[in-house]
Amino acid sequence: MDKENLNIIPEEIIMNKIYLIRGKKVMIDRDLSELYGIQTKVLKQAVKRNIKRFPEDFMFEMTSKELENWRSQIVTSNSGDKMGLRHPPFCFSEQGVTMLSCILNSERAIEVNIRIIRIFTKMREVLLNNTDILLKLEKFEKQILNNTKDIQLIFEYLKKLLKGRETTERKQIGFKRKNQ
């Protein structure tokens, strides 16, 4: 794929290749190598040759248990072919994907990485915008709860006042006439 064909790849396709594993948004080696137009084996070899560039927060290898859980979460999973995975994949965070552009020095890798990083950034912005909305909703909820408590308290006092009127006989205030 040349630069023009990279723009044809819809953002949704790249976004669908971002998974949440160990509480981190990551892309797996198989998907990245497909986007880069190289074999997964070539990608893994390049990473292993430059392993110092990939600390745990940039890249980690999925455990067998994580791989099974991940497969079970993917609806399109076909357990017969293990989704094309014979070995647990490498998982790359946003920083790991950026580091890949340093070791895979092709034009295609650079263009793909720019596109992926922009998508990660968009996702983060959407999350931040939603966080602001959620915080505002939480604030309104607290206000409503407080208002509800205040209203309940007002009704309790009103009920007490009404009960007080019914139960106590009050002496008439004012002058009394002799005929009464």
Characterization of this structure:
The chain is α+β, with helices and mostly antiparallel strands. It has seven helices and four strands; from the N terminus they run ααββααβαβαα. Strands 1-2-4-3 form a four-stranded antiparallel beta sheet. α3 (29-36) crosses α4 and α6 (94-103) runs antiparallel to α7 (107-167).
What layout of secondary structure does this protein have?
Layout: H1 3-8, H2 11-15, E1 18-21, E2 24-28, H3 29-36, H4 40-49, E3 59-61, H5 64-73, E4 90-92, H6 94-103, H7 107-167
Helix pairs in contact: 3-4, 6-7
In short:
This protein is α+β, with helices and mostly antiparallel strands. It has helices at residues 3-8, 11-15, 29-36, 40-49, 64-73, 94-103, 107-167; strands spanning 18-21, 24-28, 59-61, 90-92. Helix 3 (29-36) crosses helix 4 (40-49) and helix 6 runs antiparallel to helix 7 (107-167).
